[in-house]
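Consider today's protein:

***
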Amino acid sequence: MSSSELTQQSSVQVQQVPRSKRASKTTPISYRIQIFIRFVVALFGGYALSALLAVVISLAFKNTPTSAVMTATMLAFICHVCVFIWVFLQHSLIKSIMGVVIPLLILTVIYLGLGGTS
């Protein structure tokens, strides 16, 4: 092929296709509210869960305080990321909220059982 043939082939006309009405629809407000609620649960619930986990781990391993605090802090970061993923992975909003609340309650009972102040 010569260069003139290539330029003739590359100058193909592109027609604009009108947008359909379906493509211009916006997402419903209820969906946006659900996403906002999930974000709030993931952010604050994940923070509360990871902080409580760090406290429980550091209380459980009082004999080696430096190692306990370092390990608890690293696990708290991992926990917060996992909670964030969990909340947005679930199809049901209630399931994602319960996936944060139930471990919070369990860790609270463990914290109080280890002699934490109430």
The chain has a mean pLDDT of 85. The chain has one domain: 28-113. Residues 28-113 form one domain. The longest helix spans residues 29-60.
